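User: tokens in, sequence out, please.
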């Protein structure tokens, strides 16, 4: 039997690389994109090598006009088939509050965080056989339920992407399953110190922040959940159950 094929945007680094590694372990062939270097994270490279995964890197600026259609054509040309799974993980994360909000910041965030996932989802369904029913997983954010004023363009774009999950699931019907995963704080940047991370863990309703593998586990579940569509799974230690006054990096 042909191994399933997954397309993971932003799949070479950080959370995308962990998702890609989980899929490689599960037996998927992989089409991975990034807007920068085509060298995968060390852990992902080791996993791809260990599994002898059939994979290919595709350079893509998904915010550019026509980029989603070009990417899907390149994937089809290389693998000879449409993906069975699309994980829309690539995202822009700016730091604007309402004072710095502008048409340009909104346009940039929405182009990559909303328009690209929607258009790539459409391109996948168009490229798939009517009976194929590919799975689409949109990576959103736990803040969609209790937003704060930080990273406003990012937050608005992720709220819109979360809203698209049900609409696309209804629009595609039996042609594709569309779901979302809403992570909490998963891979902290250098902005966080050890004491802050301990306090944030303790402040979660479950007493623990998720790790990246927990997000990848949820993606893999939704990839295989043949009777699930239009759902968003929160993997955040319960963070969406509480309202935080600022983004975690400022707490």
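Assistant: Sequence out:
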């Amino acid at each position: 039997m042909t191994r399933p094929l997954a397309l993971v945007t932003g799949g070479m680094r950080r959370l995308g690389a962990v998702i890609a590694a989980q899929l490689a372990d599960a037996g998927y062939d992989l089409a991975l994109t990034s807007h920068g270097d085509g060298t995968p994270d060390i852990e992902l490279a080791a996993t791809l090598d260990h599994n002898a995964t059939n994979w290919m890197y595709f350079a893509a600026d998904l915010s550019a006009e026509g980029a989603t259609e070009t990417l899907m054509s390149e994937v089809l040309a290389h693998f000879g088939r449409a993906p069975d799974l699309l994980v829309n993980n690539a995202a822009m994360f700016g730091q604007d509050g309402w004072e710095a909000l502008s048409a340009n910041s909104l346009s940039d965030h929405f182009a990559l965080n909303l328009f690209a996932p929607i258009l790539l989802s459409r391109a996948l369904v168009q490229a798939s056989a009517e009976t194929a029913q590919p799975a689409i997983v949109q990576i959103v954010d736990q803040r969609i339920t209790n937003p704060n004023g930080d990273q406003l363009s990012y937050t608005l774009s992720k709220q819109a992407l979360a809203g698209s999950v049900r609409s696309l699931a209804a629009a595609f019907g039996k042609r594709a399953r569309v779901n979302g995963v809403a992570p909490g704080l998963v891979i902290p940047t250098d902005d966080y110190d050890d004491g802050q991370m301990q306090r944030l863990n303790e402040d979660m309703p479950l007493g623990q922040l998720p790790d990246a593998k927990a997000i990848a586990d949820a993606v893999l579940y939704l990839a295989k959940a043949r009777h699930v569509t239009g759902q968003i799974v929160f993997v955040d230690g319960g963070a969406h159950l509480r309202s935080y006054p600022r983004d975690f990096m400022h707490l």
